[in-house]
Amino acid sequence: MTTDESLVLRVAGRPVGRYLTRPELPDRLSPRPFLHPVTTLSGTAVTELSPADHLHHLGVGVAVPDVEGHNFWGGRTYVRDQGPTELDNHGAQRHTAFQLRDPDGFVEELRWVASGRELLRERRTVAATELTDTAWALDFTFSLTNTTGAPVSIGSPATNGRPGAAYGGFFWRARKEDRAPRVFTADAEGESGVHGARADWLALAGGHWTLVFAGATDTTRRDPWFVRADEYPGVGSSLAHTERLPVEPGETVVRRVVTVVADGTLDRGEAAALVRKAVSP
Which residue in 70, 108, 72 sits closest to 93, CA to CA? Predict the structure, then answer.
């Protein structure tokens, strides 16, 4: 897998993530820019790229399984009354340009294209900030604008008939280890307790690392969390949980997720304190 353009995010001079803008990927993986590897400040990797269990999981980025029937997630498409089905319906997110490009972040323009036409135009803003000697924050905002001149809607396998599968939006494929990570929020514990729930923040704690995800706007916090821990470690924020999300011509959908990337395993109090620091105005 190669690219003709990439950049390295740094915090306090240390590399913490590589962003690939034009990865060479087969169509069925829904080619798109992504961050991988992302690491803690001590260098522990906390992302995976095209793991054997889900080849279309690409580190950290934005992936949506259904934009007007086009698959921007990768892999099979869930078809109502039929199940996961191989379809020739994959779209691609195409890097257009960087509006800003610094060691600690960037602003990028992208085009979401499928069947030879642009469906959405995206502005993506990413920033890396030091929090403590052992933790930093990845601030990730994406703005999707309907450029078609007609209504466009965003769906998920859940809105297409598969309960509990409302993935689509910001998604982080985390590091898989021998033991499943602990997952918790301020008042709930375990995958079954947090999946599909709304919470200001959600933590995924592995052997020597912790990720704490936080919706950084009121709109983002209204999206339920999509969580996997036992089958594979992954966390996303669901754009289309129970109903399709309509986007009118010229309308823009904006979401912002801030993720604390910490060495060690945090408890609830430590996770909450770092989120407050990361998301504070």
Answer: 72
